[in-house]
Amino acid sequence: MPDTTQAPPDLTAWTCPAPLRDQPKVVMGHGGGGVMSAELVQNIFAPAFGGRVLSQLGDSAALSLGGIRLAFSTDSFVVRPLFFPGGSIGDLAVNGTVNDLAMSGARAAFLSCGFILEEGVEMEVVARVSHALGAAARAADVEVVTGDTKVVEAGHGDGVYLNTAGIGLIPDGVDIRPQRVVPGDVVIVSGAIGVHGVAIMSVREGLEFGVEIVSDCAALGGLVATMLDVTPDLHALRDPTRGGLAAALNEIAVAARVGVEIREKAVPVPPEVDGACTMLGLDPLYVANEGKLVAFVPRQHADAVLAAMRAHPLGAGSTVIGECVRSHPGMVVARTGLGGTRVVDLPIGEQLPRIC
């Protein structure tokens, strides 16, 4: 007989992993890099700020100032935990902004850095984060030239939050943006996907998968420079962070008004990432990366660009995963190993929040 003495469950305390999109308040999904993030930008931020440059909605803004072409980007970092296998919030703060600039073809020159510290955080933690950030900046050959510090009351933060902004020069003849993508372009990914997100999850939740999974956090400016040495005619680049490879492909498909077809078996997913995602019911295509890029390259240059990428340490695992097509514009389709197809949608929120 069922126990009728227990109180009924309090349904008002339940939460949904895919929040409703007509929320009157901000929910975690609004920061996930998926549909909810896009709606927040398109419905609130873009109308409020306006401007032609902002409407491009790239990883960084391509600007012209006194005849010099610049890329400018800013990013905030709220990752938990602050330190993880393969990196820390300090590494992410540098590499994330450097990579956003690189996706416009720019070599990062200068960074700003803002620290938001929670009252009570240990000075040793602040020092560790600062040293990691400085080391990452030196490795990326970029200089931190200005910054700011704020402190919030205990209980109103999570130890350390960071914001970095960066500027870099765009070489002459380089015009990298999603609107240049056309049918026939080859889609190349620079290596194994899903590593960063699974690395964060494993330490945050105390999960073990039989092998330590180390974040792929890295600065990609050198890899992009190598690609540009082959040809300045790269059509689009994107680093698939929040929302993973799926979000990056969808964003470019929509912006370029082309269809994207990928071969599911060609997408490089490490066995440990595949095993973790299978165990937890996740799709590796939607898991965040911090040291990979996806490139849309004219077919006539694809072989040479791929060879150059594979010759670079950060692109050794580069592979062709698909192409752009005229059919189903704005949609990404994966051809499965069984010969069928499935639509790879833009995620609503994010499978794994707080990964950067």
Automatic annotation (TrEMBL):
Which Pfam families does the record cross-reference, listed alphabetically?
AIRS (PF00586), AIRS_C (PF02769)
The PurM-like N-terminal domain extends over 59-170
InterPro entries noted in UniProt: HypE, PurM-like_C_dom, PurM-like_C_sf, PurM-like_N, PurM-like_N_sf
Origin, by domain of life?
Bacteria
Q: Where is the PurM-like C-terminal domain?
A: 183-327
User: Gene3D superfamilies in the record, alphabetically?
Assistant: PurM-like C-terminal domain, PurM-like, N-terminal domain
Q: Which family does it belong to?
A: Belongs to the HypE family.
- Entry's PANTHER family? CARBAMOYL DEHYDRATASE HYPE, HYDROGENASE ISOENZYMES FORMATION PROTEIN HYPE
NCBIfam families assigned to the protein according to its UniProt record, in alphabetical order: hypE
Q: Indicate what this protein is called per its UniProt record.
A: Hydrogenase expression/formation protein HypE
